[in-house]
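Let's practice the habit of predicting before peeking. Look at the sequence and jot down your guess about where helices and strands might fall. Then scroll down.
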Amino acid sequence: LKYLSEKFPNSEYLPIIKGLMGRQQLNTTNKTGTEESAVIIGRSIRSLKELMQVEGIKGKCAYIDLWATYCMPCKFQFQYNIDLHKLLNSYNNLVTVYISIDDEKDEPMWRNQIQYYHLFGYNLIASKELKNDIQQRLLKGAPLLVPRYLLVDENANSLNNNLPRPQALLILKEELDKTLK
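Done guessing? Here is the structure:
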């Protein structure tokens, strides 16, 4: 993959091969000028437990942003991502996971919005099974509405199933401090 990426960076086959390998990195530069990447989890994840076993996430807690490409309140919150990521990066063993509840047919738009909004961290479109698992496990059967912000431990147990939105960064910091420190 490294060889192909270096020799044929514009090959139409490169994204296919990366997708078949289970994840793809979209490298972009954030607004502060530092290089970060969005990791696409290309394989179908069926449960939170399975998600928490993905390389790079395993053994860590996850800040989960549930969103959708059609959700304007979700996209409104992305304007706070620079400060949000600074806050989240101040905690050891915490990763950011963006889970879209879009249908698989919306994947091209979803990929474009990951780049457009600089959604650094792990990204995936939730399978029907994952949506059901989140709804049953974390939301106790309540409807899966977005935007929603969750905090789970390395074993996919809920630490907080209704975190404040990123625009309320100070309140969010207080909640994370209570839970993670």
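How did you do? Residues 22-35 have pLDDT under 50 and may be disordered.
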